[in-house]
Design a protein that fits this description.
By secondary structure, the chain is α+β, with helices and mostly antiparallel strands. The chain contains 5 helices and 12 strands. The chain is globular and about 55 Å long. It starts with 6 loop residues before the first helix and ends with a helix.
Amino acid sequence: MSRVRFVVLSLVAGVLASACSNERSATVEALRGAESATAAEDQADGTPVAQDSSAGKPADRPTPKAEQVVSSTKSSTASSPGRSTSEGQQNDDPAVEAVEKELVAKWNKIRSLSAHATVQVAQYSEDAEFWLDGDGTYDCKVADGKLLIRLFLENWSVQQRGSNEAQRYDTRLTVVDGEYKYVLTDSAGRYDAEKSTSEPADMLQLGGQAIFDELHRQFTVELLPTDNIDGRDAYVFGCSPTTGCGKAYYYFDRDTGVMLKMHLIADETDTVTRGIELRDLQIDPDLSDELFVFSPPDGVRVIDRTRMQQMQRFEAKPVD
């Protein structure tokens, strides 16, 4: 599993950059953009057996509250130079490399995993607020050398501006079959489905060497005191962006190398926070390959994004 990167890393970098550049002048459009980005990959997103998308409605669930977002844990410790990575960044603590190697070795032994996943987002401006709670499941397994993933989330969100409030409930299913990624969104019976190439950064992987390589490429990384997540001892990494503001915290299970939790503070005022957490972790459960086969509802058209992605990669290719 170690060759695949985790999508949240890319989202963290984007959120940190945007939070610092927009000077917190969020509008309703900006909040909708944040909601869309979260409902895309950020949830997670972040989870094992798919749930029924018919469960729940906004009135059936508690309204998301900003204070529910998981707060950051411990203050960062002093750092010292470590080994340089291929990207030119340095480990800030000599212990970081040893812990990473330990976690990667344990992750590489995993053939499948399942977990219950939750996602929380809060964003504030002077005249607008946005909250989102996501709840669902995550499954992944290695089959024929390919990483298969299924992520299902139910999302409840609230947007407020002045006395106006808008609530939304939807479900989002993401399936990676080892070659393509499929996303199906159901909002009050309105379906949207699309197919895209399963790029490494979109694979929703929860461990492995590629995660740490990407962390060191984007962040200054330090090892913080251990914590306990859902009864599991966890190594904690504090990550400060090499450019911009904000802070990210990653929690990895000491026994399995699986990322149990991520908490992002997108700026120093806590006006944008995001949290992802896994619970009820199951290692090497027996998961059927059929779980990772995407089947859209009858009559739902799947938009194929693969040709556009190929064109974009061709246009971005440097000319010799």
